[in-house]
Amino acid sequence: MSVSSTDKGSSTPENSAVIFIDYQPQMSFAVANIDRQDLLNNAPLLARAAKIFGVPVILTAVAVVTLLNEQCCVNSPQRASEPA
């Protein structure tokens, strides 16, 4: 690390990110190391905290069209399977 590096050993919004990997309530059955309700409650809290502190948030998901098409997009004018 060079002397001019901006990394002072602390996490900042510029050198950090919150990443939700495959966060889908329908997939919570596969999680065994935390109570499922705690997981469903804590994820939105973490996302809000990241927003407050200006930390970028990345969300990844698989099979969105298959698992969520009817549930998350019912009130949306655009279905998940339709291109943006």
Main sheet: strands, sense, barrel: 2 strands, parallel
Mean pLDDT metric: 74
The helix/strand series, from N terminus to C terminus, equals EHEH
Low-pLDDT parts are: 73-84
The number of helical segments is 2
Sheet with the most strands: spatial strand order: 1-2
Structural class: alpha+beta
What gap, in angstroms, lies between the N and C termini? 42 Å
- Helix % is 25-40%
Beta fraction: 5-15%
What is Rg? 17 Å
The best one-word shape is elongated
Beta-strand segment tally: 2
Oligomer: single chain
What would you note in describing this structure?
The chain has a domain at 18-72. It is of the alpha+beta class and 84 residues long. The protein has helices at residues 36-53, 64-72; strands spanning 18-21, 57-60. It has a two-stranded parallel ribbon with strand order 1-2. It has 2 helices and 2 strands; from the N terminus they run βαβα. Helices cover 32% and strands 10% of the residues.
Give the gist of this structure.
This protein has helices at 36-53, 64-72; strands at residues 18-21, 57-60. Helices cover 32% and strands 10% of the residues. It is α+β, with helices and mostly antiparallel strands.
